[in-house]
Amino acid sequence: MPASPLLVEFAIALPIALAFAYAVAWVVRRLFGRRLRLGLTTMAVISLLGISVGLLLAGLLFYGQYLWMPTTLLLAFGSSIGLTFVAASVAAFIRPNYGDVDVAALLVAGESDHVEFKETARWNVREHKKDPRMELAIAKTVAAFLNSNGGVLVIGASDDGVVRGLERDLSTLRTPDHDRFELWLRDLLSTLVGRNAAALPHIQFAALADAGTVCALNCPPSPKPVFLTAPRDGGPSTDLWVRVGNSTRALGVDEAVEYVSRHWRPTLASLVTGRPAGPTSGR
Q: Smallest Cα–Cα separation from 272: which of 34, 31, 36, 19?
């Protein structure tokens, strides 16, 4: 007989509770998919809190309950599952809608810290040829929006908001249509910023009267840092790109470390919504 049976029970119950909370969190995240931006750790903590709520209810509502009694276990595990599903549903519901945007209104309003125009994505308008530097500029802008507060990149419009269309970019593709262009964009971003980051932007095509068609990438804030890996003399380089006013720039190592520590600093709001901390965190 142990000298302190309650401590022994607690020592046995704790890893079981942690394992159960992790399993519930994993299943819920799989069920909600991309609609849920809460991290696995956050969901596991919520699930663990649900177990505590169930134990509290068992102690308050039922006389003479012990830890391993069926009623106690059912309340604990049931509360864990219920609270996790509720939290996931709320987080998915209140998540900002990074879907279609009013492209015409953006073109009229002009560029800002949340909006940028690119005349082409592949075609160098000065040298009249396909240029990898144009592709890299697209990836840098997307990475910067993801690493900041989000934003919209419009491809097919000049800096002053005049629609130029996608014809020159489409002409560089084997199959010159919008589906192929979107596939190329996803592949480009997957190569330069990673598959997870490449899946975040919402891509839409907008036909603007007789002016032509543009492509808009609506980029949400990324839940974690996005690094751009690009070829450079001497080997590939990995940089952190951010928005500074209306411009996009790479941060040095010291600046990047400081930016990441401030921008993704855990707060109550970021744990609940799964988003980076807001501007009040000292960015």
A: 36
Domain that holds residue 157: 103-281
Q: What is the pLDDT of residues 245-257, one digit of tens each?
A: 889 999 988 999 9
Token pair for 76: 């604990």
Our measurement of the distance from residue 7's CA atom to the centroid of its chain's CA atoms, rounded to an integer in Å, reads 42
Structural domain total, the chain: 2
- Please, what's the b/e burial string for 49-81 (b: 16 or more CB within 10 A of its CB; e: otherwise)? bbbebbbebbeeeeeebeeeeeebbebbbebbb
Taking the model in full, what pTM does it have? 0.67
247 CB-near residues (< 8 Å, 6+ apart): none
95: left (phi over 0), alpha (psi -120 to 50) or beta: beta
pLDDT tens profile 143-198: 999 999 999 999 999 999 999 999 999 999 999 999 999 999 999 999 999 999 99
Query: In this structure, are 22 and 74 located in the same domain?
Result: yes
Q: Name residue 155's beta-bridge partners.
A: 118, 215
Q: Which two tokens stand for residue 67?
A: 């830890």
Place of tokens 């996931």: 88
Q: Say how far apart CA 107 and CA 6 lie, in whole Å.
A: 67
pLDDT at 35: 66
For position 231, which CATH number holds?
A: 3.30.950.30
| Sheet arrangement for strand 212-219 | 115-118, 151-155, 212-219, 202-208
Distances 182 to 45, 159, 275 between C-alpha atoms, Å: 38, 22, 26
Domain C-terminal end among 69, 94, 119: 94
Q: Is 211 helix (H, G, I), strand (E, B) or coil?
A: coil
> Any idea what DSSP says for residue 153?
E
Residue 2 clears pLDDT 80, i.e. is over it: no
